[in-house]
């Protein structure tokens, strides 16, 4: 719900929440940007039967959490540290995606402004 | 009671038996006719009983119709010999020969004598009239068969047997009309093969035998004689089983024979015949059930001087036959398959 | 001697069974094992009929909770139904109910689900009509027939599942999502779950079923019967994740949540308020399920079972103490005179509202946070949050009527709380209601949800709860002059107070038209035309024809002979021409 309210303005530039970035990743940046890479192996994920929706860029923390969980089950509270790591990574990923969205929106607004001035 | 071991009558029974065999196993049409004539001649003394005017009138009528039929039969055979010299199967002549044999059997449209006569016969004689007398004409019919004509006869037979029997109260007339109906089933089986006819005929005559002998030993001639107050329920149960079996209700024995005929009729593409047979069989079953139902429910006749009982030997025989009638289908699968 | 009573035996038996299930939950979760036992009854052409039993941690956990609540309820009913002559019959019905529920939980194929489902519907009917009066009869009819609709829909889905060769939907859900048949089956199952869990078109039976005895309400209408629909949808969850049809369920369950919350504020019957609160929470469960988060729905199902059963049992004790009166306007002063009961009641109410760190907090708060993180529209968002506020609203109102104030029934009174049998049962659930939330939230979420919200959105829950509490306080302080203010909102109140006229839909709406149509058909067809054409008509035709035919037989003999000749001549002519 919050995304809907926050992305309301983005409709002026035809940008929807689920769209991918369309501009070149290096536009506006001075330094080089690294592309993101998956740190978990696909076969590890498959053998741990992680659902497809959870196989994102933080999946290695998730795998550590699963390992710790099954080691300490049923006293799962002992895994709070691994859980905290995973949730932190997810949070960072969320913030990064938010920033990418905002960047995309600003670039489009700029493009419109440039096109309007010309 | 059972037919007495009267030596006079035994002579005539023997000749009756022999005549049918002559008629079946001859290899010329003349021999067939001879057999039919001897059949007629030997049956007349069996049914004529000078004590009773009904039975002597019945024997006279029987003589008249059967002799007309035999004369017709001889005439048409000779006509056929003259025209075709035993070679071809022509339609007009075969219709005439078939219809004279139908008159012999008591089939529609020549059936008016049949209920009339049977009213004057004792139960054993009527049993012979309904079962044994049909063997020779049926087999002769199968020699010179014209299907299209016989299909009309089958349908007419079934309708007449069903509708005519609805309004009767005399048990002998009911059995006569049911015999006409079963004649249509037998003719339908002749459409397919003779083996099938033998099968159906054996089942039918078994069921008729039980019923006729049961009626004979209880001396019942009319439906209202079934409403006796002190008649044992076991005996009524025997009636129930045998009537339902005769009507063709599963899982009794009578159903089995009808089922096989329906099966083969449909295989050989006679669905219309099948339809009529089944529908009229329903109506026949209706008035069987009417008889049984009322015999179980009405108990208003109270006899003071006669007690209705069956002796143990008879009861054993009837019960055994009814048992066959119930489980006959299962037994038959051992024998006929 | 009391040890040999049927309540004690079965209560203790179910309790130990529940502990046994708890062991299995831990074992299955630790080793990540699922046991699937199958017995093939017959395999014919392309259809395999088999009886299967599925033991995975979810079914074991649910069974543990069901057996725990049922053991507590049976022990409770030893004192509640002590004046009942046929207590054995009652306990037998409760046991049959529990067994049907257990059958439904452990079954992976539609036929055994149907057995459990039909068993649930039938036994709950027998339990609702247990007090044999007119009100119970009407309530039972409404319950049974609403449940029957669901049965019919499940039967239809069984016939659609014959396409797949066996009825073990457990295997087909993730693979066959794009089939048309699976879409139909999903739609039918969704509608069936909606009838059982009393969502919007079918929700009139749940408040009416409060005519049942209170232990029955505690067991059946709080945790087991109504959650059977939710459980079925949780099992079918993989089918609905990306489908379009689940939006209908989202809308209807959200509206159910909202409607039940509002209607609970207009009710003055204690058990009906608790029933409508159950309805509201069921709507919450269904709506979070329809957003794809089945594990959250399951979690809320379990914790809700605990505190709702506790609420019903407290209500039962209170009703006993108030001389079998269920109207809350007569009540007051419970916190002074029934301290332990009011302890249980308050904790259960607070758990329902979502007060932090009780059982309801973990499930409800997590649900609301996940809702805020996901992609919704404004209407559904408002439904969720306004319903949360309404929950606090009616809970506070109920507490105000019951606890605060004076006893309104009689002027000379003595309330006492010496019914230790009932209290002991309530304490077990009290402990579970406090502890189970925290216990479960660690165990059953292998993949944690990340929540990242701004301050105001996070505090929205608190704002709504506080607002609801304030409204609850204000509404329950009813003075004599506030009566003439009611006329202002008369039309709106008369719509909102009768559950948006849903009971009329289920009773009057269906009654008159169909019954009158059936009556007309009976008079016109069964006793009319069909009589003429098939029964009497045919027999009259046959009779007339037979009478006509018999004239031919009453003739002279030579007429017959002549007719024979005529027939033969006719046959010949037929041939020649």
From TrEMBL, chain B:
The chain crosses the membrane at residues 12-36, 62-83, 112-132, 144-167, 198-221, 233-253, 259-289, 315-336. Its EC number is 7.1.1.2. Keywords: Electron transport, Membrane, Mitochondrion, Mitochondrion inner membrane, NAD, Respiratory chain, Translocase, Transmembrane, Transmembrane helix, Transport, Ubiquinone. The keyword Nucleus does not apply. GO terms for molecular function: NADH dehydrogenase (ubiquinone) activity. It catalyses: a ubiquinone + NADH + 5 H(+)(in) = a ubiquinol + NAD(+) + 4 H(+)(out). Pfam families: Proton_antipo_M (PF00361). It is found in: Mitochondrion inner membrane. GO terms for biological process: mitochondrial electron transport, NADH to ubiquinone. Residues 26-281 form the NADH:quinone oxidoreductase/Mrp antiporter transmembrane domain. It is an enzyme of class 7 (translocase). It is a multi-pass membrane protein. One of its GO terms (cellular component) is mitochondrial inner membrane. Its main location: mitochondrion. Core subunit of the mitochondrial membrane respiratory chain NADH dehydrogenase (Complex I) that is believed to belong to the minimal assembly required for catalysis. Complex I functions in the transfer of electrons from NADH to the respiratory chain. The immediate electron acceptor for the enzyme is believed to be ubiquinone. Belongs to the complex I subunit 2 family. This is NADH-ubiquinone oxidoreductase chain 2. It comes from Scirpophaga incertulas.
UniProtKB/TrEMBL annotation, chain C:
Keywords: Electron transport, Membrane, Mitochondrion, Mitochondrion inner membrane, NAD, Respiratory chain, Translocase, Transmembrane, Transmembrane helix, Transport, Ubiquinone. It is an enzyme of class 7 (translocase). GO terms for cellular component: mitochondrial inner membrane. Residues 107-388 form the NADH:quinone oxidoreductase/Mrp antiporter transmembrane domain. It comes from the Eukaryota. InterPro entries: NADH_DH_su5_C (IPR010934), ND/Mrp_TM (IPR001750), NU5C-like (IPR003945), Proton_antipo_N (IPR001516). GO terms for biological process: ATP synthesis coupled electron transport; electron transport coupled proton transport. Pfam families: NADH5_C, Proton_antipo_M, Proton_antipo_N. It catalyses: a ubiquinone + NADH + 5 H(+)(in) = a ubiquinol + NAD(+) + 4 H(+)(out). Its main location: mitochondrion. This is NADH-ubiquinone oxidoreductase chain 5. It comes from Scirpophaga incertulas.
């Amino acid at each position: 719900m919050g995304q809907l309210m926050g992305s309301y303005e983005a409709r002026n530039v035809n940008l929807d929440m689920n769209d991918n970035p369309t501009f070149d990743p290096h536009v506006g940046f001075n330094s080089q940007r690294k592309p993101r890479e998956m740190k978990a192996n696909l076969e590890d994920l498959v053998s741990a039967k992680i659902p497809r929706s959870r196989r994102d860029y933080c999946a290695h923390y998730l795998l550590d959490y699963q390992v710790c969980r099954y080691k300490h089950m049923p006293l799962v509270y002992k895994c709070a540290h691994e859980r905290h790591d995973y949730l932190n990574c997810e949070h960072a990923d969320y913030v990064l995606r938010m920033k990418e969205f905002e960047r995309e929106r600003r670039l489009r607004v700029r493009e419109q402004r440039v096109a309007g001035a010309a | 009671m059972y037919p007495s071991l009267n030596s006079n009558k035994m002579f005539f029974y023997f000749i009756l038996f022999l005549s049918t065999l002559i008629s079946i196993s001859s290899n010329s049409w003349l021999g067939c006719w001879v057999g039919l004539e001897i059949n007629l001649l030997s049956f007349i003394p069996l049914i004529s009983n000078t004590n009773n005017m009904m039975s002597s009138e019945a024997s006279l009528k029987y003589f008249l119709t059967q002799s007309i039929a035999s004369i017709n039969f001889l005439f048409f055979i000779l006509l056929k010999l003259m025209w075709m010299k035993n070679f071809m199967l022509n339609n007009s002549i075969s219709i005439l020969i078939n219809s004279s044999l139908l008159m012999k059997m008591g089939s529609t449209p020549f059936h008016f004598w049949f209920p009339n006569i049977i009213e004057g016969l004792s139960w054993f004689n009527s049993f012979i009239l309904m079962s044994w007398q049909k063997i020779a004409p049926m087999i002769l019919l199968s020699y010179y068969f014209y299907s299209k004509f016989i299909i009309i006869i089958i349908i007419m037979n079934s309708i007449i047997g069903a509708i005519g029997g609805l309004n009767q109260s005399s048990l002998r007339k009911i059995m006569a009309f049911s015999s006409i109906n079963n004649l249509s089933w037998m003719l339908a089986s002749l459409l397919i093969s003779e083996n099938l006819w033998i099968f159906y005929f054996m089942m039918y005559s078994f069921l008729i035998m039980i019923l006729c002998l049961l009626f004979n030993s209880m001396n019942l001639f009319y439906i209202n004689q079934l409403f006796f107050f002190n008649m044992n329920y076991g005996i009524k149960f025997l009636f129930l089983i045998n009537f339902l079996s005769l009507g063709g209700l599963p899982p009794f024995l009578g159903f089995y024979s009808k089922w096989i005929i329906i099966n083969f009729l449909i295989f050989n593409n006679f669905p219309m015949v099948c339809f009529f047979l089944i529908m009229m069989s329903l109506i026949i079953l209706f008035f069987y059930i009417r008889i049984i139902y009322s015999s179980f429910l009405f108990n208003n006749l109270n006899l003071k001087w006669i007690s209705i009982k069956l002796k143990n030997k008879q009861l054993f025989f009837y019960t055994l036959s009814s048992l066959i009638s119930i489980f006959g289908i299962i037994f038959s699968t051992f024998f006929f398959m | 001697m009391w040890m040999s009573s049927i309540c004690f035996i079965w209560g203790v038996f179910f309790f130990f069974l529940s502990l046994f299930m708890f062991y299995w939950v831990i074992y299955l979760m630790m080793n990540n094992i699922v046991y699937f036992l199958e017995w093939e009854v017959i395999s014919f052409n392309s259809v395999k009929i088999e009886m299967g039993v599925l033991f995975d941690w979810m079914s074991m956990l649910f069974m543990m909770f069901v057996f725990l609540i049922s053991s507590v309820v049976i022990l409770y009913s030893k004192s509640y139904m002590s004046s009942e002559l046929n207590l054995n019959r009652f306990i037998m019905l409760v046991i049959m109910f529990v067994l049907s529920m257990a059958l439904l939980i452990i079954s992976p194929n539609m036929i055994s689900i149907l057995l459990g489902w039909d068993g649930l519907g039938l036994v709950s009917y027998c339990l609702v009509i247990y007090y044999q009066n007119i009100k119970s009869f009407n309530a039972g009819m409404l319950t049974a027939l609403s449940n029957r609709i669901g049965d019919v829909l499940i039967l239809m889905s069984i016939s659609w599942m014959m396409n797949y060769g066996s009825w073990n939907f457990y295997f087909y859900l993730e693979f066959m999502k794009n089939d048309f048949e699976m879409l139909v089956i999903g739609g039918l199952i969704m509608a069936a779950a909606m009838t059982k869990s009393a969502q919007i078109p079918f929700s009139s039976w749940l408040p009416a079923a409060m005519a049942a005895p209170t232990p029955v309400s505690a067991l059946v209408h709080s945790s087991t019967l109504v959650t059977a629909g939710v459980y079925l949808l949780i099992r079918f969850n993989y089918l609905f994740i990306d489908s379009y049809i689940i939006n209908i369920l989202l809308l209807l369950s959200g509206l159910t949540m909202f409607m039940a919350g509002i209607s609970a504020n207009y009710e003055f019957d204690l058990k009906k308020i608790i029933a409508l609160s159950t309805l509201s929470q069921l709507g919450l469960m269904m709506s979070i399920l329809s957003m794809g988060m089945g594990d959250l729905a399951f979690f809320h199902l379990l914790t809700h079972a605990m505190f709702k059963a506790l609420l019903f049992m407290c209500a039962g004790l209170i009703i006993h103490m108030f001389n079998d009166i269920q109207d809350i306007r007569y009540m007051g002063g419970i916190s002074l005179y029934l301290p332990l009961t009011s302890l249980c009641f308050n904790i259960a109410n607070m758990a329902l509202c979502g007060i932090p760190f009780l059982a309801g907090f973990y499930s409800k708060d997590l649900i609301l946070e996940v809702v805020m993180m996901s992609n919704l529209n404004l209407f559904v968002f408002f439904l969720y949050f306004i319903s949360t506020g309404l929950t606090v609203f009616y809970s506070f109102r109920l507490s105000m009527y019951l606890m605060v104030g004076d006893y309104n029934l009689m002027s000379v009174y003595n309330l006492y709380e010496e019914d230790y049998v009932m209290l002991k049962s309530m304490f077990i659930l009290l402990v579970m209601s406090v502890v189970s939330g925290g216990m479960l939230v660690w165990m059953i979420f292998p993949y944690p949800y990340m929540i990242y919200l701004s301050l105001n959105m996070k505090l929205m829950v608190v704002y709504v709860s506080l607002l609801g509490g304030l409204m609850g306080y204000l509404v329950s302080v009813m003075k004599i002059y506030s009566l003439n203010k009611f006329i202002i909102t008369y039309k709106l109140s008369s719509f909102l107070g009768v559950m948006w006229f849903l009971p009329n839909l289920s009773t009057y709406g269906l009654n008159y038209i169909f019954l009158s149509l059936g009556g007309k058909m009976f008079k016109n067809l069964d006793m009319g035309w069909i009589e003429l054409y098939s029964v009497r008509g045919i027999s009259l035709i046959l009779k007339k024809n037979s009478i006509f035919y018999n004239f031919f037989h009453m003739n002279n003999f030579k007429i017959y002979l002549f007719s024979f000749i005529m027939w033969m001549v006719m046959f010949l002519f037929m041939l020649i021409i």
